[in-house]
Amino acid sequence: MKYYLIAGEASGDLHGSNLIKQIKLQDPEADIRCWGGDLMQQAGGTLVKHYRDLAFMGFVEVVMNLRTILRNMDFCKQDIAAFRPDVLVLIDYPGFNMRIAKWGKAEGYETIFYISPQVWAWKENRVKQIRETVDKMLCILPFEQAFYEKWNYPVEYVGHPLIEVIKEAKAQPVVAPLSNKPIVALLPGSRKQEVSVKLPLMLTQAKHFPDHQFIIAQAPSLEDSFLLSLIGDQPNVSMVKGQTYTLLKQAAAALVTSGTATLETALFGVPEVVCYKGSPISYFFAKRLIKVKYISLVNLVMDKLVVTELIQDELTEANLLRELTLLLKDVPTRQRLQADYAELWHKLGEKPASRRAAEIIVEEASHKRISPEGSLTPGKP
Q: According to the UniProt entry, what is the EC number of this protein (predicted)?
C-alpha cells in the first residue's frame, strides 16, 4: 500500500523514522513518500522535502516567510495528488499539517494525525476542525485522551514514542567519554533563528564553570560554521553532531530549549533548565494565547513544576548561573529531580507507541484500499 507521511521538524523526523520501520514490518510492500529528514529517508521513505527547508517558528517569522510556506503547501498538494496514497499520515507540525488535513479530507483521502497538535495549550477551538478533517487522531501524551473526550471526539493514546527510543539508547554499549571533565549539555534547538538567540545566552555559563566542558548538541540542520561563529574562542566549549543521546548519557546537567528535547533530557535522568526566548512580538502574542501553566512537557505531564523554566526576560546570564549551580552542586535538588523523573517514566507508561501507531495506520490503509465491492481503489476514490 502507499503511504504519504509529513513531518516538519527534527523530532517529527525521529518519530516518523520509527513509524516507517514499523509500517514496513507490518506491510513489507509499503511504498512510502515523505516530508521529513535524514532519519525518515534512512528508514526507507522517499524524501520529498527536508524539514530544514520548512521550519519557521514564531508569529513574526511565519509572516515573513509566508510566501515560501504557501509555495510549499501548493507543492505538497500536487505531490500527494500525483502519488495517490492510500493514507495520509500527518506527524505533528500542525500549522502546515492541519491545512493539509483539511485539503486531504475534501479530496477524499484517509487522514491520520500522529502526535496531536497542542490544542489543549492554545486555540482549543481547532478541535472542531480536527473532528471534521482527521479520521484518526493518535495521541502520545496521557492527558490528551481526556481532553478530547470533553469534545466528544474519540482518540487513541498509543503511548509516547520517546520511551522506546530512549530505552533502546540506554541499552547501547558505553562509548568513549566525550570529555574528561564533567559535561554540561547545551541543546539550543534545530532552527537557526532560535539557536542564534538562545545559544549565546547558554554559552555565557562556560566562563563560570571552567572545570566543566560545555558540549553543544548540533542538529543536522545546522552548519559547523554557524555554530563556530557563536562559540568564538571559548576553550571549554565543543560540539557533537548526531550524538545527542550519547551526550545526554554522559551529561551532569543540561540547558535545553523548550520542546521535545526537555522530555528527552528528563528521560535520560539529566538535571535541566528549560530555556525559551523568542522575538518580542512573537512572545507578546504567545503569552496571550497560550493557556497552560508550563511550557515544558516534563512539567505538563507531571502537572507540577519539576524543572525550572526561564522564559523570555527571565533567560539571563545571572538566572542561568543560579539554576545551573543548583543542578551541579546542590544534592537535594538533584535527588528531588531524580525522584520526579522516575514518576515521569511511570506516567508515560511502557506502550510501544510506534508499533501501535503503525498497526492502526496499516489497518486504516487496508480498509481504504478495499472498496465495499472488494476491488482496489487507487488512494483517492
A: 2.4.1.182
Question: Residues 296, 258: contact at Cβ < 8 Å?
Answer: yes
Domains held by the chain: number: 2
Q: At 211, list the grid cell.
A: 572545570
Backbone angles phi, psi at 28, to 5 degrees: -60, -20
**DSSP of 76-91, one letter per residue?**
HHHHHHHH--SEEEEE
pLDDT confidence of residue 122:
77
- pLDDT over 60 at 186, yes or no: yes
**Same domain as 281, residue 179:** yes
Each as own residue / partner, the long-range contacts of residues 119-126 (CB below 8 Å, 24 or more positions apart, any chain) are: 119/147, 120/144, 120/147, 120/292, 121/290, 121/291, 121/292, 122/286, 122/289, 122/290, 122/291, 122/292, 123/289, 124/291, 126/94, 126/98
CA distances from 105 to 97, 99, 275 (A): 12, 10, 38
Cell numbers describing residue 373? 465491492
Q: What is the pLDDT, as a whole number, of residue 268? A: 96
Question: Is 178 within a domain?
Answer: yes
* pLDDT number for residue 60: 58
Let me know whether 177 and 315 are in one domain.
yes
**Does the residue 376 lie in any domain?**
no
pTM of the model: 0.80
Distances (CA, A) of 63 to 122, 268, 363: 19, 36, 39
327 in Cβ contact with 271 (< 8 Å): yes
| Residues 146, 148, 151: CA angle, nearest 5 degrees | 120
CA–CA distances in Å: residue 79 to residues 39, 48, 73, 75, 345: 21, 9, 10, 6, 40
Q: Are 15 and 91 in contact (CB under 8 A)?
A: yes
The residue whose grid cell reads 465495499 is: 372
Q: How far apart are CA 147 and CA 310, in angstroms?
A: 27
Write out the residue range of the structural domain in which residue 218 sits: 166-348
